[in-house]
Amino acid sequence: MQAKKRYLILLSAGACLVLLFYFGGVQLPASDRNRHDRSHNGNRPDQPWPHFSDPLQQFLLWDQTDTEEYNIHISPRQKRDVNTSVYKGKRCRMDSCFDFSACKKNAFKVYVYPQQKGEKISESYQNILSIVEGSRFYTTDPGQACLFILSLDTLDRDSLSPQYVHNLKTKVQNLHLWNNGRNHLIFNLYSGTWPDYTEDLGFDIGQAMLAKASISTEIFRPNFDVSIPLFSKEHPRTGGDRGYLKYNSIPPFRKYMLVFKGKRYLTGIGSDTRNALYHVHNQEDVVLLTTCKHGKDWQKHKDARCEKDNAEYDKYDYREMLHNSTFCLVPRGRRLGSFRFLEALQAACVPVMLSNGWELPFSEIINWNTAAVIGDERLLLQIPSTVRSIHQDKILALRQQTQFLWEAYFSSVEKIVLTTLEIIQDRVLQQESRSTLMWNSHPGGLFALPQYSAHLGDFPFYYATLGIKPYPKFTAVIHAVTPLVSQSQPILKLLVAVAKSQYCAQIIVLWNCDKPLPAKHRWPATSVPVIVIEGENKVMSSRFLPYETIVTDAVLSLDEDTVLSTTEVDFAFTVWQSFPERLVGYPARSHFWDSNKERWGYTSKWTNDYSMVLTGAAIYHRYYHFLYTNFLPASLRGMVDQLANCEDILMNFLVSAVTKLPPIKVTQKKQYKETMMGQVDQKIHVPDWQMSGNPD
Questions:
Q1: What molecular function terms (GO) are annotated for this protein (predicted)?
Q2: What is the pTM assigned to this prediction?
Q3: What gap in Å lies between CA 321 and CA 316, rounded to an integer?
């Protein structure tokens, strides 16, 4: 009897399972491999909100939500099928789809395909190509290249856009170096079109890497693709404005707690979140404004709220809101990325991200939890209470980090492009890659070059963080350009005075004179080693070469006719020890904008301010020799060598561009003497690049 009962129970259970599977009541779990195959930097958009101990569950992608109009065009299953077939190289990683051997011979060089006649190219993409061609990575020889970039415009792959390039599939396949996309990088800002906005570029990218805006975590291939920000065609090509945070207010609260002003999509992809913002808007410190007034047929589709929303929208000035709010909402639009992201960063308005499934820009290197609040579209109503719960100390830290990230990686197209290339270079040259600290702290990865050293303690920017101090000695480098004919020449007196300094480790005389080197007995006897080096090509830039004989952190740069006492040398060095990342010295100069001649001027007149300290008597970290030689564009160094002048101006602007700080002038007992004191005032032409690091 018992056996019969067990048999009936088993039979009933089996029948129930069959019915459940038949009617779709049970679904097998999807593979979780992709969601765990991520970078370990903690930069995913599905991170926990601040002060929440438990992480949020995996965000639902758009293809898993229910929108009536969207489902008319394409079902969730069809959308997933599209995503999985967008790239045949979906499983590509650096070790499987990248040829490292091409990079070992010639380091990291980038080749740009020659532009083809008759091919249209947008201004934005032309800017990208010009930036690559002007970088230190560029090569005109494809045989030396580690990375290849197409001259075919791939930025806008929306087929309805006037910038859309037709027949790209055939054009790409006909490139003789294409090699199924291996070692190629493709830049893209827009993909897909109305109504689905898929991430298909309209051609098979093969094994090429993507530098793509609005890329989803589902499509993104970790440590292979690079997520870049969406930027407008008006975004500055180089330089770019600094962040708007001029001073830190304590407490760090502004007029508004949370703001947003933008389009509202009545139907279709991206409409759900923006359509619900009015639930959170309180007209006081949470001001979330949307308008239906966009597109040709907006009146045909307007709903009951449109008129009220439009009227409210017109009452507020967007810039005023942006600059006077603590947090800025960054909801998704038709695509995952939004222009609001960069606007919020620049304005020091902490971004509150509402774009489920968006791989945030440069997520491989940037820890976005230190500069943004990563939200969930499903928890929209919790946003006000969440941002209000963030402590003011945390708000101040978030705001300061927005300014650092904006100026380090996002303020210009040049920085976006170079950051992309530097990320890929770090992958290729793994033994010389930057640490997380280098990328996420001042001065940033673009200025902290791992080719100089793999040890953080060798850079002047990290002494305070590491709790260390620079080496307590300096190397003096005296630039000699006139022959040694008398024992009473200033260079010999200078050499003796410097050698008596308690902080002097050695003296290097850089002989840039056309006459032969003086005999050894012509130099005075000193208590420290004196090394005489023949200048390379006898050019001005040779005084800033990273000589291996410089073993100290500090370099005391001197002109041969400088007059300084031992006490003055000691004083300057002790000041520098407190500011090792800055340029510290005696002779000061100022640059100014001459509105009459519409160019920059340069003066040595004594005023109440200054912007430069000449390297004829200045102390700085030896790392700046490495940057001067390996980071600055060759055209700028060439200009200095051609003029045989202005090398001190170029060094000043280099240091200020890195530190975002002015030099430090120290005073001396005697008036500083120099050969060209008669040239009190002169006009100079300073390239725009130099002025972007204005040390004023």
A1: glycosyltransferase activity
A2: 0.82
A3: 7
Q: What is the DSSP letter of 408?
A: I
Contact predicate 347/244, CB 8 Å: yes
Q: Is residue 422 exposed (0-12), middle (13-18) or buried (19+ Cβ within 10 Å)? A: buried
pLDDT value at residue 139: 95
Q: Mark whether 681 is an active-site residue.
A: no
Per-residue pLDDT at 486 exceeds 90: no
Q: What's the confidence (pLDDT) of residue 245?
A: 87
CA 508 to chain centre: 37
Contacts of 246 (CB under 8 A, 6+ apart): none
pLDDT at 17: 57
3-state secondary structure of 212: strand
Structure tokens at 20: 């459940």
pLDDT exceeding 90 applies to what percent of the chain?
60
Structure confidence at residue 499 (pLDDT): 97
97-108 pLDDT, tens digit each: 999 988 888 889
**Lowest mean pLDDT segment, chosen from 56-70, 166-180, 433-447, 565-579:** 56-70
Tens digit of each residue's pLDDT (9 = 90 or more) over 205-217: 999 999 999 999 9
Q: How far apart are CA 521 and CA 463, in angstroms?
A: 41
Beta strands 184-188; 617-621: pairing state: unpaired
Same fold, 256-410 and 474-665: no
Domain definitions of the chain by residue range: 76-228, 256-410, 474-665
Question: What distance in Å separates the CA atoms of residue 692 and residue 407, rounded to the nearest whole number?
Answer: 11
Taking domain 256-410, whether its CATH number is 3.40.50.970 is answered by no
Question: What superfamily in CATH does domain 474-665 come from?
Answer: Spore Coat Polysaccharide Biosynthesis Protein SpsA; Chain A (3.90.550.10)
Rounded Cα gap, residues 74 and 77, in angstroms: 8
665, containing H or E segment? strand 664-665
Annotated catalytic residue, options 63, 641, 648, 696: 648
Which residues are within 8 A (CB) of 357 and not within 5 positions of it... i.e. 6 or more apart?
45, 59, 60, 61, 62, 216, 217, 218, 336
Residues 201, 428: Cα–Cα separation, whole Å? 26
Q: Residue 552, Cβ neighbours under 10 Å: how many?
A: 19
| SS3 per-residue string spanning 529-588 | CEEEEECCCCCHHHHHCCCCCCCCCEEEEEECCCCCCHHHHHHHHHHHHHCCCCCEECCE
